[in-house]
Amino acid sequence: MESPILTRFTLFTVTSLFVTTATAAPFDSPGWLKEITPKKGFDMQSEIQCYTLPYGAIGFVSHILTYYTIAMLSAGRSPMKPWKKLKAPKWDMFLGVISLVIGTLITAFTIYRCRQRWQFLLIAVWKSTLSVSLGALGVSASRETRRIAKLKESMETAQLLLPKGDSYDSALKPRYRTILWWMLLYVLGIFVGLTGLISLVINSWGQRIKVVVLASEIFGGIIIGLGGLAAVLAVIFYHVDRADKLSSDEQRRKRRRLKFLGGGALVVFGVLLVVCGFLAALYSDWVLAGLAGNLIGVPSKDNSALYYAYFAAKRLPFFSI
Known about the structure:
By secondary structure, the chain is mainly α.
């Protein structure tokens, strides 16, 4: 990871710790900030008004578009025109920076607004990691596009253009997939956010809200499935270990079959684990929608400006070209 990116990551981490610590502790806020901060509600339906980020059907669509954008950028493709490679690093850098700044500011403000209900605060912190990851991915993808263009230009200028072949391809081989390391930040956010989300689900379970129950059953089923697969893996590798101690031809064949099965199951487990991590955000959309009694996720008049500004900011990297 290059030093400017590492610097931004460090600054974000320090800022996040400062914001989280500051909002958790009592302090005298400016008058204008108090006026736009909702007072502590008497139930979750009233307290969710502090949450200014998309949820429900709108949040669901937003997350799908975000995942699609991440996939395209990591492949070096334009999300808007996936059949074309990224070619405009300056424009893409501009979009990534604007998305990063606006998304971070709005999520930081949401964290402050939700400081009176720790569950919503943690969910806002979680969504901030996705916003930062997406913006940083856009910036990193633009830097990679620029690197390739400059390398090719310098090689041509110095008349050192390698003949077409393996050496040429290796010299100009894109490294867009390395930008996915930014998703580790989002992975950390998942654990933080799910802590608050599951607490909300447990607290509201007695109300038997249909959307919350259905979403929890689907998400919980995936978790149980992963647990069952882990148990199968344990049994397979136990038998592989036992077969390794035998030397007959039949046992060697059995060992190869078990290793193949175990390796395949391990790959499936990894894929399902990644899918489960991405599904967590979609799960949160419907849980929050059920708690708010707002399946579409249409914001109130007080929150609409920030709500749609955040939605628009997250869409900016989609227009990378």
